[in-house]
Amino acid sequence: QGYEGLVEGGDNIKQANWLSVSNIIQLGGTVIGSARCKAFTTRAGRLRAARNLVEHGITNLCVIGGDGSLTGADIFRSEWGGLLEELVRDGQITEEVAQKNCRLNIVGLVGSIDNDFCGTDMTIGTDSALHRIMEVIDAITTTAQSHQRTFVLEVMGRHCGYLALVSGLASGADWLFIPESPPEDGWEDLMCERLGE
């Protein structure tokens, strides 16, 4: 469950093996879970997370997420030495354990279905989101044709119209709204005229 699992520890931290990752490649989203974690935004929460990692001998993290997740990872990395010192001072770990786990290595990967990060062709999550959208569009198109109706489909993309644009192009949509290009005045008449054609 992301940082929540890191803070809570226990059964949330376990080794992945062949059986636990079998038959998941076709699933959208993350099978290991994801959660916003208020506790991790505090030093006390990060101290608990450090304790849980050290307990398992983990000093390498791969963080997939957006701005919040990657900012949290950077803060965690910068505080790591101080967190271990505090754990030693409180008697939760020994000096030897602290020395053995003195360095935290982090790899940060952008996870965003919006594909809104420069320097990469496609961010993690975009491809599976597009596949899901196209599956839905294929199903809806059949229904729309048989009922001779117009269907409106809303896709995700808070401030980024990438998913809408690409799925609109792929499906031959007649009308498209994206946040980067808000409709001009009178768009309703233009849309009705276009749909009427």
- The CATH topology of the largest domain is what? Rossmann fold
N-to-C series of helices and strands: HHHEHHEHHH
* Major sheet characteristics: 2 strands, parallel
pLDDT below 50 for ≥5 consecutive residues: which ranges? none
Summarize the structure.
GO terms for molecular function: 6-phosphofructokinase activity; AMP binding; ATP binding; fructose-6-phosphate binding; identical protein binding; metal ion binding; monosaccharide binding. The chain is mostly helical.
Structural write-up:
Residues 1-184 form the Phosphofructokinase domain. With 197 residues, this protein is mainly α. The protein folds into 2 domains: 2-110, Rossmann fold, CATH 3.40.50; 126-196, Rossmann fold (3-Layer(aba) Sandwich), CATH 3.40.50.460. 49% of the residues lie in helices and 6% in strands. The protein contains 8 helices and 2 strands. Strands 1-2 form a two-stranded parallel sheet. Helix 1 packs across helix 3 (43-56), helix 3 (43-56) packs across helix 4 and helix 6 (126-147) packs across helix 7 (162-171). It starts with a helix and ends with a helix. The model has no long low-confidence stretch (mean pLDDT 91).
Characteristics:
mainly alpha, 197 residues, two-stranded parallel sheet, fructose-6-phosphate binding, 6% strand, kinase, Rossmann fold, 2 strands
Task: Detail the topology: elements first, then pairings.
Elements: H1 2-8, H2 18-21, H3 43-56, E1 60-65, H4 67-89, H5 95-100, E2 105-110, H6 126-147, H7 162-171, H8 187-196
